[in-house]
What does this fold into?
Amino acid sequence: MKVILVLCSFLMLIACSSQKASNDTQTSTKKVEVSQNNETTKPTPSPKSAAKLASLGEQLKLNDWEIKSESFEFINEVKINHETVTAKDGEKFLRLNVSLTNNGTESNPFNNGSGIKVIYNEKYEYKSSTSTLDGDLSYKFVKPLSTEKGMYLFQLPEKVANAPEELIAVFEVNKEKVSVKLR
It folds into this structure.
């Protein structure tokens, strides 16, 4: 009697699982058909071909913003008010000096729906560090039709600071990007 119950249970389990497998096949077939009907998608361009690579000092337009990366430098320490912060062993600070012009109708910080990062050797990304430094633009509100000069600070490995490979700053607003070649 137990053998018959176990056998019946086993057969029901197999029947249910094969029915589910056939449903999965039908579902995936439908998904393939839908994706085949959307042939209007274009291949994603590589970052180098996606946008022009600007030079330091070049004025760039990005939505309601005008951005000018004026200069950059690698430093070991940063002064915050009356204190000095030293980079960790094996790291340096990258200070990117920028001017931002808000051509919008409201006072906004640049990072409202946007961001800035540095890309080293086409694959390593570093986001800016926010600080209480005088001149840090991370959360600085820029009035409409006004320009603010300041900086963004990044913590990078010393290897990046001393390397000859390409270093690019990428500014992004609502998925639109502009890039500046630092070196």
